[in-house]
UniProtKB/TrEMBL annotation:
Top-level EC class as recorded in UniProt: oxidoreductase
GO molecular function: dTDP-4-dehydrorhamnose reductase activity
Any Pfam family matching the protein: RmlD_sub_bind
Enzyme Commission number(s): 1.1.1.133
Family to which the UniProt record says this protein belongs: Belongs to the dTDP-4-dehydrorhamnose reductase family.
Species this protein is from: Amycolatopsis magusensis
Family matches, as CDD domains: dTDP_HR_like_SDR_e
Name this protein carries in UniProt: dTDP-4-dehydrorhamnose reductase
Keyword match Metal-binding: no
NCBIfam families assigned: rmlD (TIGR01214)
Annotated ranges, domain RmlD-like substrate binding: 6-294
Length: 295
């Protein structure tokens, strides 16, 4: 296969930086931050997608856009829904329109928050949406915009992302381990931790498949680590890797930590669609966590 040339809006975020880190022979990655490419500005977006097309043509590579740009402040979105909507729904619409006009495929990243979180078995991609938060509503609108755009586009939902860059649960636990003797972590929300570096590699695999003309027939896919746990279970695993005693953490309930945006009780996403499309099955979340600490 010829090489891949990627444009990654949101390139300085947690996922964006791990995508940028994969650049190498046969994989060009341009990963602008929001100051260099604001996805809500149609003129700038069309210019960036056109430049991507030109770069790919010059390199004899296939262009693909992976949208890692998002408004991800879940609680703040409750009082800033219009701003979140502009970035999470209008932004993907603008990107998809530019991709459609330049015939460039688009992979758009979405979230478990588009579901209600009331299920008791892993969510499949075509399960009914029912976002309970402003963030979830804006992300669901972004999915609709992309899928209804006429662009050659795929939506990849993920959940519980942690990585080297940015703010995330793993970083918070690491700080608390060194500043607190004991702590409480919720044990009644289930999901699957996903290492952003694994997600980045998985998205590049999908981009390669699309560029080769074998894009999955299913337009919505789920990609997270394999297995499931609770935030308490995840916190205990993090403590073990830090060489700290996990007994310092006690389990508590969601109602003990009221938040402006309600948290989903059940966020496990089935990755059958991912494997069904012939993509590499995700590794178990605890194996990925061990690899994160080793790296
Ligand atoms: N972090 C998590 O736990 C989860 C994340 N996701 C999704 O994964 C994707 C990546 O998330 P992260 O990298 O973790 O988030 P992040 O917040 O680290 O990165 C998002 C980036 O988008 C940029 N951005 C904001 N407004 C922009 C605009 N108008 N134009 C261009 N860029 C803009 C931000 O500056 C930031 O660098 C997002 O679509 C998010 O909704 C899904 C599930 C869980």
């Amino acid at each position: 296969m010829s090489g891949l040339e990627l444009l990654v809006p949101g390139g300085t975020g947690q996922l964006g930086r791990d995508l940028a880190a994969l650049a190498g022979p046969g994989l060009g990655v341009t990963a602008p931050g929001s100051a260099d490419l604001d996805v809500t500005r149609p003129g700038a977006v069309i210019e960036a997608v056109t430049a991507l097309s030109d770069r790919a043509a010059a390199a004899g590579a296939q262009p693909v856009v992976i949208n890692a740009a998002a408004y991800t402040a879940v609680d703040k979105a409750e009082t800033e829904e219009a701003r979140a909507f502009a970035i999470n729904a209008d932004g993907p619409r603008v990107l998809a329109a530019a991709c459609s006009s330049r015939r460039v495929p688009l992979i758009h990243v979405s979230t478990d928050y588009v579901f209600s979180g009331e299920a008791s078995a892993p969510y499949e991609p075509d399960d009914a949406l029912g976002p309970r938060t402003a963030y979830g509503r804006t992300k669901a609108a972004g999915e609709d915009a992309v899928l209804g755009s006429g662009a050659s586009a795929w939506v990849v939902r993920t959940a519980w992302v942690y990585g080297k860059h940015g703010t995330n649960f793993l970083k918070t636990m690491t700080t608390l381990e060194s500043t607190r003797d004991t702590l409480s972590v919720v044990d009644d929300q289930r999901g699957t931790p996903t290492w952003s570096a694994d997600l980045a590699a998985a998205l590049v695999e999908l981009a390669g498949m699309i560029a080769a003309g074998n894009g999955p027939a299913t337009r919505v896919l789920h990609c997270t680590g394999a297995g499931e746990t609770t935030w308490y279970g995840f916190a205990q695993a993090i403590f073990r890797h830090l060489g700290a005693d996990p007994a310092r953490i006690s389990p508590c309930r969601t109602e003990d930590f009221p938040r402006p945006a309600p948290r989903p009780a059940y966020s496990v996403l089935s990755t059958k669609s991912w494997q069904g499309a012939g993509l590499t099955p995700p590794r178990p979340w605890d194996e990925a966590l061990a690899a994160y600490f080793k790296a």
